[in-house]
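Q: Mind making up any chain with structure tokens?
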Amino acid sequence: MLDRKFILENLEAVRSNCANRGIDVDLDSFAELDGKRRSLQQEVDRLNQEANATAKSIKDAKDPDERQKLIDQGKQLRTQRAEAEEKLQQAKDELEALQSIIPNMSHPAAPIGASDADNAELERGATPAQLRLQASGSSRDRREA
């Protein structure tokens, strides 16, 4: 399987390779999904930072009302983070499913074609020698002899 970064950096070469190999893949949606995945990852990271900062400030809060407000804010941040992580996982799964059908890059010297008939025969190897087998009867017959 090709690396996601390689696919994005070489989008046209990968698109051409897919066409040559007869694979229909929407690489534009692959690039969009990767952008969505990156933005969701940033959102999850931001929510983690906010939740950590809120947790620290809960310890430092002296006023019970302020402390309860921070606890409620922490719960809200955890809920938002869980939702964002679920969306992130969906985006990752979609991206991986699309990435798995993208074929590896063909060697530049490989012929382009739909079947073996399109391939050029470079050389033909020797044919295997014919084996001469004689029926010798069953293994019981050999033991009795």
About this structure: The radius of gyration is 31 Å. The chain is about 65% helix and 0% strand. The CA atoms of residues 37 and 89 lie 9 Å apart. The longest helix spans residues 64-100.
